[in-house]
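so my prof wants the structure for this chain in the tokens format not the other one, which i didnt know existed until like an hour ago. anyway here's the sequence
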Amino acid sequence: MKKLSVGTMAAIGMAIASPASAAQFGFTFDTNQRLFGGAVTGSGVFTTSDTAMTIAGRTAFAITSITGMVNGNAIAAPTGSYGNYFTTGPAFLDGSGVIFNDTSGGRIDFFFQDSVSRYRVNTFSPGSSSFVSASSARVAAPVPEITTWAMMLAGFGIVGASLRRRTRRMVPAV
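here's what i got, hopefully its the right format
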């Protein structure tokens, strides 16, 4: 019975200790048609929740943070609750898109304009609006560091040793 409880506790501990894996998607965009103002270029990474939902018939994940650069300025995000989604299908952003700031204090709106089936970026301070070519791809998960592997192996060793340990009982000779 003791073996079972130690093994169960070890499994529960490992499940609690392992973090939920949020997905990351790299993105890029570049002006291909100016509507007004200057051209805009940007790239970065969306981090999404690991909980899928269906929105407008597409699989979607809530965007939890954004990192990267727009026109040479770092993205200063998250700016709060996005309420926006990274989606599967022909467009990776829904019509409401994402709104974030850069380190110069400018606001950027990045969205898919359904009426013309194109991505669009609006910037404020300085003001510009452009249709952009945009792409996105899933970012590969990083390989764990050697210390992470060492701690994991040590943990397995400790759990294994505790499961193998047996208390010896003295049996009287008859």
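also thought this was worth mentioning. The mean pLDDT is 78.
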